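We modelled the chain as a single entity of 188 amino acids. Its sequence is:
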Amino acid sequence: MATTADIRNGLCIELNNDILKVIDFSKFQVGRGSGKVWTKLKSTTTGKVIEHTFQSGHNITEVRVERRVFQYLYPEDDAYMLMNQENFEQISVPADMIENGKFLKEGERVDALYHGQKDELLSVEMPPTVVLEITYTEPGIKGDTATNTLKPATVETGAEVRVPLFCEVGDLIKIDTTTGAYMERVKK
């Protein structure tokens, strides 16, 4: 049994018969009252993000989570096929379990979170950034770069990203997988 003093980013806890992952937290105290811990939690089953405030010293149930490395193989209907890197076992993961899975390309490594006692898949986490090649975009007009203007571009996975005007077909770009935003151009 843990307390609110043990809360940290990435910690998985059980609350209201659901397993939630701590995304963000802050501790604060108002006046003479007892302190409180504000948390932003993401459900590993539904993907919903909620905010919850605990009283300082409140007992929480920590869930032991195992992190396993998988390799993305290919899409299959409304799922993604992944292969365990240790025993080469293949599993099918529903598309809604992977946030921004549209940025997955073949061979990409992802982390799968498993419930420690039940050996049950909780969620799949993308790497923080991916490097993808632009397969289609309209050409930029010379001299039209005075402002921070963005144009749509399709990357090799089929996803659409907003990129600066100087990006062209064949360029490699780094994408933030949490927001789906363009970060920078990468040299080949």
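As a brief sanity check on the tokenised model: The domain at 2-62 is CATH 2.30.30.30 (SH3 type barrels.). The chain has a mean pLDDT of 88.
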